[in-house]
Amino acid sequence: MLRPNTPLEGNPKPSNTPGNPRVGPHMKAAGASVGIDFTGKCDRTPNTLLGHTLLEFALEKRGVAVQNELAERIFKMYYTDGIFPDANNLSIVGQEFGLEKGEIEAVLSDDERLEKVQVAIHRNRSQVRSGVPFFVFNGQPAFSGAQDPSTFHQVFDQLL
């Protein structure tokens, strides 16, 4: 979680103008090179606690493949489509992956579950030196930032 002190309703972003773009040219080019369209459409920076909580629930109910697909969809929802990841929008996207609306609403309003996810995020943050994304394998910090696929192959070869 990048900004843990951000309120759940997010923080407003400055206007997206040619002189002050929400997404700089380097980030746009990096995203475009791997098929990601960073648009800067969303006018708020989110607190991602609810998104992380939904992803944990998806893992529990539907497994790692659905969790991964849902993560990709949430990413696209925010970074490309400009849709803020509040409880309502997360519920809508979660339902697209077979999660029940009532269960999603219960999970996203369950203080105990939110606290559990917050503790896990805090534990993971203590392992991360810097950079997003940051990769941890078998509980051990590995590397940060976008990496060439060969880097992952080297790590997997060592682990397997």
What's the structural blueprint in terms of helices and strands?
Blueprint: E1 11-12, H1 25-33, E2 44-45, H2 49-62, H3 64-79, H4 87-96, H5 101-108, H6 111-127, E3 134-137, E4 140-144, H7 149-159
Antiparallel strand pairs: 1-2, 3-4
Helix pairs in contact: 2-3, 2-4, 2-6, 4-5
Note down, in words, how this protein is organized:
This protein is mostly helical and 160 residues long. Helices cover 53% and strands 8% of the residues. It has helices at residues 25-33, 49-62, 64-79, 87-96, 101-108, 111-127, 149-159; strands spanning 11-12, 44-45, 134-137, 140-144. Strand 3 and strand 4 (140-144) form a beta hairpin. The chain is globular, with a radius of gyration of 17 Å. The model has no long low-confidence stretch (mean pLDDT 89).
* Mean model confidence by pLDDT: 89
- Helicity range: 40-55%
Beta-strand percent range: 5-15%
What's the SSE pattern? EHEHHHHHEEH
Low-confidence stretches: none
Largest β-sheet summary: 2 strands, antiparallel
Number of helices: 7
Lateral arrangement of strands in the main beta sheet: 1-2
